[in-house]
């Protein structure tokens, strides 16, 4: 699903960001709440734990780029949990856009159009798969 070039771009850009900006996930939530303040109440006041979960989820996704089908069941389950707390499908677009913006800002000159496209493809896969899980949960 992901080419070797996309895989390399995603992994190398994430490693570079985390090496210089380990607080990237926390920065993401700051940006998210500025961009979409209506989402703020869905999160605890202190987003440290949530930021750790986001980083861990991204690490798992990056480790399975060669076999993204292994992520389908866990992402369906995550989408189902998100549906239970009121996450709407449209929020995934906002989250993806803010995450891309955060990564781009923190990667600096390392962020290229190709890197952005690779990350966009990954986040689209994650979002669509989680939305599928949410829809199954709502239908059940």
UniProtKB/TrEMBL annotation:
GO terms for molecular function: FAD binding; heme binding; metal ion binding; nitric oxide dioxygenase NAD(P)H activity; oxygen binding; oxygen carrier activity. Keywords: Heme, Iron, Metal-binding, Oxygen transport, Transport. InterPro entries: Globin, Globin-like_sf, Globin/Proto. This is Hemoglobin-like flavoprotein. Belongs to the globin family. Residues 1-135 form the Globin domain. One of its GO terms (biological process) is cellular response to nitrosative stress. The keyword rRNA-binding does not apply. It comes from the Bacteria. The keyword Iron applies. Pfam families: Globin.
